[in-house]
Amino acid sequence: MSRWRWAAWWSASPERSRSCWPPSRPINPMELIKSHILSVIIFLPLVGAAAVLMTRSERRVRWCAFGFMAATFALSLLLLGLYDFSGNRTYADHPAGVVQLVSRAAWISTFNIEYFVGVDGLSLPLVILTTFISLLACIASWNIEKMPRGYFALFLFLETGMLGTFLALDFFLFYVFFELSLLPMYFLIGVWGGPRKEYAAIKFFLYTLVGSIALLIVLIGVHLYSRHAIAGGTFDLVRLASPQVVESIRAAGMTLGVAQVFFVLAMLAFLVKVPAVPLHTWLPDAHVEAPTAGSVLL
């Protein structure tokens, strides 16, 4: 097909002519950065884990892990410049309310599960602290000789889980990241730990498993009740916290007793993770047996 015939064929369809480049409005680089910066911060360590696994030289493994963690820390510092500290934002400014730098996309439409992340005044310092401590822990692990490739890959995987936990605004997504942050720690303790590493790792796993089951019950229960307020239900934590949805769920039959049960189960899950007395007995063993960097992040 000649050049002119191809151009005529392409322009003959209104749909093609409207959808082709250039776009109807220019792309704002700052908007592009703001809408994707959190996703990059979350998944950059995961990309680093894949890069570490593909690196053959053990010496380069350490530098590769350090580079990805340093880049993640630098990007987290960039949030300080992108975040609006004026305090003038309200729920009318954005569907997510005071949450900023939101990235949102449909994930499992059947259950209204979304990839929904954002940052607020509470999660912002936690993200920066996580990336900074992870970088320090990487430096502290420089002399790891036993399977360094697997060690640093798990460490980067753990960082993705921690960052996703702090930034997730969808309950299901939060649960996924929450669980992902536990699995690498289990292997870090069980493989690179001290003399009683197997005992400490299994104890850590069993305690956190109980907390995970409790949180899963809350996850399912809240979603089922939210179906009375929103068609198909929702896992959107921002919408679930709105007064209108809360009133609709209450009117649908969530009594004070049911809410208290959900609260106790969620509290159980988080008290195990903190950990707090009397659910703290896994921590002394895990701290003693875990590698130094693992103890820092515990």
Automatic annotation (TrEMBL):
The keyword Nuclease does not apply. Its main location: membrane. Residues 168-298 form the NADH:quinone oxidoreductase/Mrp antiporter transmembrane domain. Residues 105-161 form the NADH:ubiquinone oxidoreductase chain 4 N-terminal domain. GO terms for cellular component: endomembrane system; membrane. It is found in: Endomembrane system; Membrane. GO terms for molecular function: NADH dehydrogenase (ubiquinone) activity; NADH dehydrogenase activity; ubiquinone binding. It is a multi-pass membrane protein. Keywords: Membrane, NAD, Translocase, Transmembrane, Transmembrane helix. The chain crosses the membrane at residues 36-54, 61-83, 122-144, 151-169, 175-192, 204-225, 249-272. The keyword Lyase does not apply. One of its GO terms (biological process) is electron transport coupled proton transport. It comes from the Bacteria. This is NADH-quinone oxidoreductase subunit M.
